[in-house]
Amino acid sequence: MYQTAATADGPTVLVVGGMHGNEVAGYEAAGRIAEWQIDAGTLVTIPYVNAEAVEQQTRTGSDGVDLNRQFPEGEEPTTELAREVWNVVTHYDPDVVIDLHESIGIYAGGPVDGVGQAIFHSDSTETTDDAKQAADTVNQNHVDEPALEFTTDTFAKPENEPSGLLVHKAARDLDAQSFLIETLSRGPALETRINWHTQLVTNLTEEELFTAESETDDSASDSSDTPDEEPAIEQCREDAS
Q1: In whole angstroms, what is the distance from residue 46 CA to residue 53 CA?
Q2: Is 118 exposed, middle or buried (0-12, 13-18, 19+ CB in 10 A)?
Q3: How many helices (H) and strands (E) does the chain have?
Q4: Distances 154 to 123, 138, 180 between C-alpha atoms, Å
């Protein structure tokens, strides 16, 4: 994991990728976001949170456990890897949590056919407005096909499936502004999908992490700078075994 701290005070933003190892654009974007230079606050990034699954290019690691179902609200996470990830989250107590994913289908109000091209978010007016603004901006400037425009929706209620998601727990146990971004994994080029992720994260965090004078587009696309990184307080394991 990576931590970049600016000299100016500001909120803490946590960006996660690689929860599922076959959702390539999410973890590739998170790796680039880890290299951002920021003007305020703290940026914590875990690009390859399920490193074994990423290495195998599979949804889960060899244990077959879906990591993003192991974070029950109000309870301890259910696997060793999930507990170590949650230890990092609670240590930094982020104000904003963003988890990057991909789906084989486009979201149409229900998860049956897929959840791609969508931003799911915690249920507050501020978070709802931020998600809609980010989607609108990216749709206007970075999406060429109307069928691929991003939509937004609130998280599933606690009593509904899917449950045990990291962003759900962060929102409801830590009161963090939480977002789960899904791009369509089939059709659009990988670089296009990575760009969508990075642009959406930029729009969701630019008021918190960047000054008005900062070139946020450059920050999101330029991976050549070396961040002011500090070692992880809790090192995430590469597998859940």
Answers
A1: 14
A2: buried
A3: 7, 7
A4: 6, 19, 10
Q: What is the pTM of this model?
A: 0.88
Token match 């606690």: residue?
A: 158
Whether the CB-CB separation of 50 and 211 falls below 8 Å is answered with no
Paired residues of 14 in beta bridges: 44, 97
| In the block, residue with structure tokens 């931020």 | 130
CA distances from 229 to 4, 14, 36, 91 (A): 5, 14, 10, 17
- Give the strand pairing for 118-121 and 177-184: antiparallel
Nearest CA among 47, 44, 20 for reference residue 32: 47
With a CB cutoff of 8 Å and minimum separation 6, the contacts of 213 are none
Single-letter amino acid, residue 214: S
| Tokens of residue 25, six digits | 């654009």
Query: Is residue 179 classed exposed, middle or buried when 0-12, 13-18 and 19+ CB atoms within 10 A define those classes?
Result: buried
Asked if residue 155 lies in contact with residue 123, where contact means CB atoms within 8 angstroms, the answer is yes
Q: pLDDT (tens digit, 9 = 90+) per residue, 28-81?
A: 999 999 999 999 999 999 999 999 999 999 999 999 999 999 999 999 999 999
How far the first Cα of the chain sits from its last, in Å, is 19
Mean pLDDT, residues 211-231? 45
